[in-house]
Write a structure and sequence with these properties.
about 35% helix, 4-stranded mixed sheet, about 425 residues, single chain, 14 helices, 7-stranded mixed sheet, Aspartate Aminotransferase, domain 2, alpha/beta
């Protein structure tokens, strides 16, 4: 084993395996971030890197956006945490969310997007009196037991049975989740029909990782759920306020019964939410629906004023600037420029994605579901991502990435030069 750098030694001594989460870089390209400005991050090694991770999509305005920094500073001077009662910033943000989200008659706050999808599933079960949730293979809905089913299986699932992605997931959680292939309405229709007596809801990422829905897929799910008297749950943790100000619901014109949010709505701080129909969300308040227990919505940091202030500042900038055409244009410029480099080196890698999403993909076709990733040469794209990382571009290997409103043409030129060097390195 090669000698570890001093930083890597510190990481290994403190974190299990030297990593804070499963999402980490290999040892030879790993670094510790100490600052972010605009579209770049600074490592403790002294190197600035172009950042296409963008906080897993949360940082649509980039790092340290002035309005967000000022809002956080102002709120910090007034207090950072008030448990139990609603604070003024949470109330103001909740009003903005209800105004912005097509399906939201009411909202509740959570601390993370993962927690939001967890509560959305609980609401669906409470409202319908049924236990089973249908998700789509390859879809990621957070880190709780109900979401860690068939996110990244080694082989295609035996639909509708799913496969646990982690150790420690109880059998009961596994049995309450069934799975269908994304973008396959015929399969979804069959599974929903067969399980409608026990099915509480269908949860879907409107854009599953970097795979966009086929024309009519989301509306087809809406129709299938209506026919079966099943709730439709959108996971808008990533798409919310990124595809459009009203998220995927506005962009595709399809309204779910419940929608989960995180990332952008918190301005880069820890915050999540569930919005949806009033009759469903009334279950959040004990006693209103005739059951003193309700759905037990509670969290020490729910609606935290610091996060709410950051979220309000972020959403105000998005409303004022309306940057969605800019995001779309720069996303297309990135995909086009990177594809030209890849084609020059004849690597057989394409740049997939739309809008402000993109990723490298080694296949002769665009992916429409998770099975297409199983059939692609993921080792080749991982090697390219790692080589590119050595050229001071920050991406997580084989993970979708984004552009923000602060990514510039100059940074794109630098990234193109770095990608050319990375291609030569792996060839």
């Amino acid at each position: 084993m090669a000698d570890l750098s001093p930083t890597e030694e510190r990481l290994q001594e403190i974190f299990p395996g030297g990593r804070m989460t499963k999402n980490a870089l290999a040892e030879d390209i790993n670094f510790v971030i100490c600052e972010g400005k605009g579209a770049r991050v600074l490592g403790t090694d002294g190197d600035w890197r172009i950042d296409y991770v963008c906080g897993a999509g949360a940082l649509v305005l980039g790092h340290a956006y002035p309005e967000i920094v000022e809002a956080v500073r102002d709120q910090a001077s007034k207090g950072t945490h008030f448990f139990g009662l609603v604070n003024d910033k949470a109330l103001e943000l909740a009003e903005e969310l209800v105004a912005a989200i097509p399906c939201a008659d009411r909202v509740i706050f959570t601390t993370t997007g993962s927690e939001a999808t967890y509560y959305a599933m609980r609401f669906a079960r409470a409202f319908t009196g049924r236990d089973v949730i249908l998700k789509f293979e390859g879809g990621y809905h957070g880190n709780h037991d109900y979401s860690n089913i068939s996110v990244a299986p080694d082989a295609a699932s035996n639909y509708p049975s799913g496969q646990p992605d982690a150790l420690g997931i109880p059998e009961g959680a596994q049995n309450s989740i069934i799975v269908a292939p994304f973008n396959d309405l015929e399969a979804a229709a069959r599974i929903i029909k067969e399980h409608k007596d026990v099915l509480a809801g269908v949860i879907v990422e409107p854009v599953q990782r970097v795979i966009f829905p086929n024309d009519g897929f989301l509306q087809g799910l809406r129709d299938l759920c209506d026919e079966a008297n099943v709730l439709l749950l959108f996971d808008e943790v990533v798409t919310g306020f990124r595809l459009a100000y009203g998220g995927a619901q506005e962009f595709y014109g399809v309204k779910p019964d419940l929608a989960s949010y995180g990332k952008i709505m918190g301005g880069g701080l820890a915050l999540g939410a569930v919005g949806g129909r009033e009759d469903i969300l009334l279950h959040a308040n004990p006693g209103i629906v005739g059951d003193s227990k309700g759905t037990a919505i509670s969290g020490t940091l729910h609606g935290n004023p610091l996060s709410a202030a950051a979220g309000l500042a972020c959403l105000k900038v998005l409303k004022d600037l309306n940057p969605y055409q800019q995001l779309r244009d720069h996303g297309q410029a990135v995909r086009t420029a990177f594809q030209e480099v890849l084609d020059r080196h004849n690597l057989g890698i394409r740049v997939i994605g739309r809008e402000s999403w993109w990723q490298f993909f080694a296949s002769d076709r665009e992916p429409v579901d998770y099975a297409d990733f199983l059939n692609a040469d993921m080792a080749k794209t991982k090697a390219l991502d790692m080589a590119w990382s050595r050229e001071k571009v920050f991406v997580m290997p084989n993970t979708r990435r984004f552009v923000s409103i602060v990514h510039t043409d100059e940074e794109l030129d630098e990234a193109v030069t770095a990608l050319d060097a990375a291609c030569r390195a792996i060839v």
